[in-house]
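Milestone 3.1: sequence recovery, worked example.
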């Protein structure tokens, strides 16, 4: 199963000096969704929010995802 790499997402957000609220406003992704990704409480990410985050941080979607079976 592919999941969001919450640690990477949090590192990118903090490295860019953003709060969850600020990131939510910039990416138009609900703050609770972003928090769930970071805390790994959302196991099956939808592509649209992950694509928005990848574009925002100028990284690939693969960089934000990890394969739990590896």
């Amino acid at each position: 199963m592919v999941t969001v790499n919450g640690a990477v997402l949090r590192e990118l957000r903090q490295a860019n000096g953003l709060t969850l609220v600020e990131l939510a406003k910039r990416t138009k992704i609900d703050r609770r969704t972003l928090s769930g990704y970071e805390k790994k409480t959302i196991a099956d990410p939808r592509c649209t929010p992950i694509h928005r985050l990848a574009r925002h941080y100028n990284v690939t979607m693969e960089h934000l995802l990890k394969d739990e079976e590896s």
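Strands lie at 2-4, 65-67. The CA atoms of residues 6 and 67 lie 12 Å apart.
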